[in-house]
Write a structure and sequence with these properties.
This protein has 355 residues and is an alpha/beta fold. It is built from 12 helices and 13 strands. The longest helix has 17 residues.
Length: 355
């Protein structure tokens, strides 16, 4: 049984983030390997104590300093790996991929999962974007295998011979009849637009709030997510909410998130940048109508053309919301066979053996 060391994620369970959600579902469906997950201690929650038979956690110090936390924690993780050698190292994303050359120099095979081009995120200044581009070059060159969750990004990077497209996945879900979480926050079942994600600028929540301000037929917007490092973006969103239509529920998981998906009128995903947003698959699993910005990350799934609106364009978003609210509120049916986590875990497992 191979031992796989996993770095580049804050950890799981109970930790916010797309990479974190991806890791949780992927590794809990991977029963035939030993997994050593390196987690950032500063992000652990009560839920993080949940254990799994073949998963070992290594919790190391970390900070919440933007631009430093990932580098520092990955460095500590790599030092531990060098003394506790696994069979393969699985790195998530290009920033932590800067350590791929060191791991290869130490004789360790490396598999990289490329989630998104982080240098496109507006939160980074010019020097940070330059550094992330260098990390991308190192990651792609020195990894033995590269997994892309976004087919467009794989083609953009040249579709290397060692690259493979493996999408994100979704488990079967059942709708919740309970509304206790909604009642706690004053949310009206069936009457709100739902947005889910970390409160970071690349999620584009400001465009949704501005559209809600313009449309009297939009009475509530629920944003389920929390800030990463500081409240600057959250403060901006609150200031934009001049008509007091927005309810912020914070980082929401489990039954609470299930209730939000089960009783929403629609999911709106106004992101500026995405790799392959898992919230899109989650909304599809619950049969929600969907509106999303027209970017490569959201084009990974087969949605009707009218479900897309022009990115950063409030007028386009208003038109899409108006059209949606004028149609009957009926469950949607999506084909999700391609996104089965058991198949995705098995395909990913195969990459660990191709070194």
């Amino acid at each position: 049984m191979k031992t796989i060391a996993v770095i580049g994620t804050r950890g799981f369970p109970g930790i916010q983030g797309g990479v974190e959600a991806h890791s949780y579902h992927l590794y809990t469906h991977m029963q035939d390997v030993r997994l050593r997950i390196y987690r950032r201690r500063a992000y652990l929650t009560e839920q993080s104590a949940q254990s799994f038979p073949n998963i070992e956690y290594v919790d190391l110090p970390s900070t919440r300093i933007k631009g430093f936390e990932a580098v520092w924690h990955t460095f500590l993780s790599v030092m531990h790996i060098l003394f506790h050698r696994p069979d393969v190292v699985h790195i998530h994303n290009i920033g932590p991929g800067m350590f791929a050359p060191l791991l290869r120099l130490a004789g360790l095979p490396v598999v990289l999962t490329y989630h998104s081009p982080n240098y496109e995120h507006s939160k980074w200044n010019a020097p940070a974007r330059w550094l992330l581009r260098q990390c991308e070059k190192l990651s792609l060159r020195f990894s033995n295998r590269v997994i892309f969750v976004n087919k467009y990004q794989m083609e953009k990077c040249g579709a290397l011979d060692k690259s493979v497209f493996i999408p994100n996945g979704i488990d079967p879900v059942t709708r919740s009849d309970s509304t206790t979480f909604l009642e706690k926050h004053g949310i009206h079942a069936g009457g709100y637009l739902l947005a889910v994600g970390r409160l970071t600028p690349e999620k584009g929540f400001e465009y949704l709030i501005e559209a809600a301000n313009r449309l009297p037929q939009v009475t509530q917007v629920v944003i389920a997510g929390a800030s990463d490092h500081d409240s600057t973006y959250r403060d901006l969103l609150e200031r934009l909410d001049t008509n007091k239509k927005v309810i912020f529920t914070g980082f929401t998981t489990g039954e609470d998130l299930r209730q939000l998906y089960s009783h929403a009128r629609a999911l709106v995903l106004p992101s500026v940048n995405e790799g392959f947003p898992m919230v899109l698959l989650e909304a599809m699993a619950y049969g929600l109508p969907i509106l999303c910005s027209d970017i490569p990350g959201t084009r990974q799934v087969d949605l009707p053309e009218e479900d897309y609106f022009t990115v950063k364009d409030i007028d386009s978003l208003c038109t899409a919301i108006t059209r949606l609210l004028d149609t009957p509120d009926e469950p949607q049916h999506y084909d999700l066979k391609e996104y089965d986590w058991n198949t995705i875990a098995a395909t990913t497992r195969q990459q660990f053996c191709k070194n």
